[in-house]
Amino acid sequence: MAKIISYNVNGIRSAISKGWIEWLKATNPDVICLQEIKALPEQIDPLPIQALGYHLYWYPAQKKGYSGVAIFSKMKPDHIEYGCNKKEYDDEGRALRLDYGDFSVMSVYMPSGSSGDLRQSFKMVWLDFFYNYIQHLQKTRKKLIICGDYNICHKPIDIHNPKSNANSSGFLPEEREWIDQFMKSGFIDTFRHFNKEPHHYTWWSYRSNARAKNLGWRIDYNLVSSNLEKKLDKAAILSMAKHSDHCPVLLEIDLSQELK
């Protein structure tokens, strides 16, 4: 059974200073997809992570201290795809894909639109691009696991106050429609596949003691191709991990056949 985790660490150097490597050792995922690493590979000591058995694959943003994704994997991939062949997104380190046998794992950091209209417009254009990019990719890579910070709550159950946030970036009708259509195009929201209960979130504002009050948003997902449904074993939100304003999301999936 493969254990895959997605985690927006909001700065890997900051997370490491809060005991992240010790947490990684204890949790022991086979693959961990990171977002908002906010660092270049040479800015951290790789040895403690490599000592745990991981191969490290980085795709930082061009702008220092901003965005960027990475995947640390105990399994060595057959192929690594850096970016999505679109400069304005690749400059921001938005996507990284590792291919293993018959399946692929992606770490994706979707843009946030919360800083204003310009970035919201950028986000909506990215969403259209990414939808088409994945539709095309599915023709050759039919078993996809797309992990990441999508910066969108899908349904009212996924946000602590849907009414007051109806006009907030991350819960806009057009964003929710996009993620709904994306899932309907052939992907399973693995957490909701196993858990239909409310009050499960993956991100909390640093303001107003929001995390202690569990006033959060569920914006981090492990989405998998529908053809992997029977392989799913478990999904969970690991809200006790506190190295970031996000928490990790876990997927356990049987990929033994796909690796042959």
Secondary structure class reads: alpha+beta
Strand order of the largest sheet: 3-4-2-1-14-13
Cα shape: globular
Order of helices and strands: EHHEHEEEHEEHEHEHEEEEE
Task: Please state roughly what percent of the residues sit in beta strands, choosing from under 5%, 5-15%, 15-25%, 25-35%, 35-45% or over 45%.
Answer: 25-35%
- CA-to-CA gap between the ends? 14 Å
Number of strands: 14
- Radius of gyration over all CA atoms, rounded: 17 Å
Residue-averaged pLDDT? 97
Polypeptide structure, described:
The mean pLDDT is 97. The two termini are 14 Å apart. It is built from seven helices and 14 strands. With 260 residues, the chain is α+β, with helices and mostly antiparallel strands.
Any chance you could write out the topology, listing elements then pairs?
Layout: E1 2-8, H1 12-17, H2 20-27, E2 31-35, H3 47-50, E3 55-59, E4 69-73, E5 79-82, H4 87-90, E6 95-100, E7 103-109, H5 117-137, E8 144-149, H6 173-184, E9 187-189, H7 190-194, E10 203-204, E11 216-217, E12 220-225, E13 232-237, E14 249-253
Q: Main traits of this protein?
A:
260 residues; alpha+beta; six-stranded mixed β-sheet; 14 strands; 23% helix; globular
Task: Summarize this entry quickly.
The chain is α+β, with helices and mostly antiparallel strands and 260 residues long.
